[in-house]
Amino acid sequence: MQMIMTCAEESRHVAETLAGTFKPADTFFLIESSLPDYGGWSGEAVKTAAAGGSFSPYLAHLQSAPRAKILFIRKPLSEGKNFFVAVTNQETPRIYHSQLADYDELLQLDISSLAADETPRINGRELAEIDELYTVCTNGRHDPCCAAHGTPVYHELAAQAGAERVWQTTHIGGHRLAATLIAFPQGIVYGHVDPPDVEAIVSNQRAGYLLTHKYRGRGAYAGHALDAAAHQAAGAAEAVIRERTRHYRLDDLRLQEVQDLGADRQRVAFLDADGGAHCAEVTTGMSAPRLTSCGDAPKPMPQHDVLVVAAD
Question: Does a structural domain hold residue 268?
């Protein structure tokens, strides 16, 4: 009898490389709602809410921010209207919180304050800066792997980091990489996370370190507005360079530039804290067909070949 793997099982079985699998986002908006007016979280919850209904004007306003990524969040026994804004594409990434009286307040968020690197404001009221937050995709209606792998990771994260700092979220992207989570304020994205990994993720996050073997990428690189190909190439190169140089602290490396070499090749350069340059050439091709979602036909996926090279 032939065994049928889920998309997450197949991704782990083929040891899919995680780094370079997260697309760019400068600003994250996290809105607490189970979307009861939409029948709960659907497979494409954000797209569904943006297409029409009560949330549509709110999401249209938020999406006017530079490269915005919107996620709905929830947790057991919470019935509030918590709202978080994470700004990741700056020297000091930050995350802010507000308890909304009504979702109409989202229309009063001053989007211009985000671009100006100011504390975001709603009706002139500044949002409160917080130190950390974790979101875990548990959206089983998008893919059953998200619930199967994400739910136990959510509970372990709540135990390790504190329930007030952890939320379940709608689709982050890459459900074959479940469990997948985002650590804020930097917007560090991890994949193939299991409950035994959680303690190390939390302790390293709090100490300012990054776990390269679970690293998918980050929300943005400070001061850079990269397209998806360049951003993912930077993530792939970053993991390899960090492992090669043992620069595991988040501030050990700063992206200098990504140069398009043509033919799906990118040259990525980082600077370390002492000004030393570290470069890699990233060639992006396509994998053999594989499951990207349970129930869908297999299809090729981008994969990155990273070659560390000498700096010019």
Answer: no
Contact 179, 48 (CB under 8 A): no
Asked if residue 178 lies in contact with residue 149, where contact means CB atoms within 8 angstroms, the answer is yes
Find the domain containing 150 and state its range. 1-225
How do residues 280-312 score in pLDDT, each as one tens digit?
A: 999 999 988 988 888 888 899 899 999 999 776
* Structural domains of the chain, count: 1
Place of tokens 């804290």: 273
- pLDDT confidence bin for 66, thresholds 50/70/90: confident
Residue range 164-173: mean pLDDT, rounded: 94
With beta carbons less than 8 A apart as the criterion, state whether 35 and 44 touch: no
- Token match 């490389």: residue? 17
Query: Which pTM was predicted?
Result: 0.95
CATH number at residue 85: 3.40.30.10
Residue type, position 37, single letter: D
**How far, in Å, CA of 189 to CA of 218, rounded?**
5
Question: Domain for residue 299, yes or no?
Answer: no
Cα angle, residue 149 at apex, residues 145 and 150 outer, rounded to 5°: 100
Which residues, 6+ apart, have CB-to-CB distance to 64 below 8 Å? 111
- Helical spans, DSSP H, in the chain: 7-13, 45-51, 56-62, 111-115, 144-161, 198-207, 228-245
Sequential DSSP letters for 26-39: SEEEEEE---GGGT
Would you state the structure tokens that stand for residue 83, as one six-digit string? 């709202």
Binned at pLDDT 50, 70 and 90, residue 142 comes out as confident
B/e letters for 234-255, b = 16+ CB within 10 Å, e = fewer, are bbbbbbbbbeeeebbebebbeb
**20 part of a folded domain:** yes
Amino acid identity of residue 275, one-letter, is G
Indicate the pLDDT class of residue 1, thresholds 50, 70 and 90.
very low
Nearest to 173 by CA among 56, 29, 293: 293
